[in-house]
Hints:
The protein is of the alpha/beta class. The chain is built from 11 helices and 12 strands. It has a domain at 19-112 and 217-339: Rossmann fold. The relative contact order is 0.14. Adenosine-5'-triphosphate is lined by residues 28, 30, 37, 55, 57-63, 223, 294. The site of adenosine-5'-triphosphate (ATP) has 13 residues, from strand 1 and helix 1.
Amino acid sequence: xxxxxxxxxxxxxxxxxxxxxxxxxxxxxxxxxxxxxxxxxxxxxxxxxxxxxxxxxxxxxxxxxxxxxxxxxxxxxxxxxxxxxxxxxxxxxxxxxxxxxxxxxxxxxxxxxxxxxxxxxxxxxxxxxxxxxxxxxxxxxxxxxxxxxxxxxxxxxxxxxxxxxxxxxxxxxxxxxxxxxxxxxxxxxxxxxxxxxxxxxxxxxxxxxxxxxxxxxxxxxxxxxxxxxxxxxxxxxxxxxxxxxxxxxxxxxxxxxxxxxxxxxxxxxxxxxxxxxxxxxxxxxxxxxxxxxxxxxxxxxxxxxxxxxxxxxxxxxxxxxxxxxxxxxxxxxxxxxxxxxxxxxx
Length: 346
Ligand SMILES: Nc1ncnc2c1ncn2[C@@H]1O[C@H](COP(=O)(O)OP(=O)(O)OP(=O)(O)O)[C@@H](O)[C@H]1O
């Protein structure tokens, strides 16, 4: 088994991922002391690829996504886009980068301007960035975008305000707005978690269609592995725990053949088992349900106080490194590193 400094990436014909997070960390000063919300994360997104970031609340998903979007600057490490560190870009190039990477929030109600109609919401960025010339062309494009996100007939929506729409409709408008600037990557941050199940499924289906039709890459953030499975099956998934990536690999492997005890526990915790999800032979036993504070991380593996496979002296010593455990799949677990990963079921 070899240590991986960089998460192995499926690359495009040019051989380069579109975006990489290269050893990025984010430290926040809090009342309880400094916390590492993200600690030396390596991730890459290839053109048109879905990369899912999965973990419980507080694991650092949003913090990582905000760094990827250029909304916050990492405390250390680099965010590379098209081969360049985004924080070394000149102002105009940085603006272009921000256009290329669009963020869709969990709560569109908070991100859509309540005083703008849907038409104004969609035409403002088109006109501001000169994507189209003139109000008529902008209105036509807004019409097309609403059709793309299945808000039809568009004339029923263009003059409405966000509060006149349902949650699912607002989320579709937020996606349409993200599409106004022809992004190369969409960061979808728990973007369906506030929706009822049936609406969530229809919004996910719409996003999946856009993923396939537009060839846009996704950084797809969710606490729910079943949703990562649904949306990111052909992509890769990174599992985060307390600021660190603990397992990474092709989504089918993460779902059907997880190796890290934390990933296995997440799969066991899915309340209504998806019949396709292969359950680990024995449900992963946890010693504790309590998540440690980022301000007082346990020594060694941060998961060790909860882990059923904890070994005294092994797991509470050094921080485990993310190492390759199967081709394309890596995990940060001392026990898996020592014993090797089981062969996945055929
Ligand atoms: N600006 C900030 N200042 C201080 N602490 C922060 C800040 N932003 C996030 N944190 C802390 O960093 C940790 C990671 O937060 P983050 O929002 O990235 O996690 P998450 O996995 O996205 O969780 P959730 O699903 O609840 O959004 C949390 O402990 C959070 O309280």
